[in-house]
Amino acid sequence: MSNDKFFSPLKIGLFTVVLAYFLFALHQTFTLSWIGEWNRYTGSLRFEIYFEDVVGFVGITFRLTAGIIAFSAIVSYFLRKRFSKAAMFRILRLILVLEAIFWMLSFLPTAYFEVRDLFFGGALHDSSVSFVLRTFTLNALPVLVQSIALPAVLLTLVYKLNPKKTLNGAIRWALIAGTLYIVFYWLLTTTIWIQTVQVKGMTYLTSYPQNLLSVVLSAFGLLALGFYSGAVTIKYRNAQKPNQVDLRSVGAIIFFFGMYFLWNYLTWIYFGGWSSWYALFLGHNEDLWVLSLPLLGIPMLFIGPSTETTGESQPQTL
Predict the structure, then answer these.
(1) Rounded-to-10 torsion of CA 35, 37, 42, 44
(2) Which domain holds residue 207?
(3) Under a CB-based contact definition with an 8 Å cutoff, are residues 222 and 261 in contact?
(4) Structural domains in the chain (count)
(5) Can you say whether the dihedral through the CA atoms of 33, 199, 291, 226 is positive or negative?
(6) Tens of pLDDT along 286-298?
(7) By C-alpha distance, which of 79, 60, 78 is closest to 21?
(8) Does 46 score more than 70 pLDDT?
(9) Which three-class secondary structure string do you get for 220-232?
(10) Which residues contact residue 37 at a Cβ distance below 8 angstroms, ignoring those fewer than 6 apart?
């Protein structure tokens, strides 16, 4: 196999995404500015921040471990130019388990405090149904999805990733995991913008067109992408092999999801400013590595249709 054929744009894009995943985890692990953050608060809130920060730090070490494993594996693949199927499955399963633990440890404490405050804090002052529903949707629901739903789907995918069985279950749950990831970020970013506008007012959107566009992309763009990803999941839920899935559709999802992250990051760089939106999306976002996804999505857009999905003999181009 020649080097020109081996080093395809798709493989280089995959290498870049894995590198970004590892480097962002490394940066988050050794950014220790959170130490002592709890000293700014008093009362029970001081303990809550302390507990969330300490447990969250333990959680990020699991993602760092996953990043080290992923980066080491892909470097080994590029150096040796081969990878056994059994080894690939073991590495994928281990990374997914570590990622699930990361989500649980990092956000379960926050989910607990949000639910506790909802039913034993604010509800004591306002027990109306509208208050409970609004507070649950804006505060508790996103972190419950983060800490419970996402890990559950990832661990289900781990169970389905068995090289001795057909890949039908693994493909289905991989598509479900991707769709849930998009839906989660639609929920999270939309609620962040709602809270930001409550503080800043509508002029924060009307006076800054880039903010208005970010709101539209968050509330409607991610929702549309989530629906499309769900449609792709339903269409290919019975696929037995990866080449029975239209990888161009998957590539489009990956591309637009990554571009959403990249757009918001570049918006802050070029237009500046700071608000609770940027504080949460950039300052407290564990997934900024996602902005590298377009480099993986673009090559996937040019993968030719496989013979198993079209019935015709057409080459696949990487």
Answers:
(1) -70
(2) 178-318
(3) no
(4) 1
(5) positive
(6) 899 999 999 999 9
(7) 60
(8) yes
(9) HHHHHHHHHHHHH
(10) 49, 53
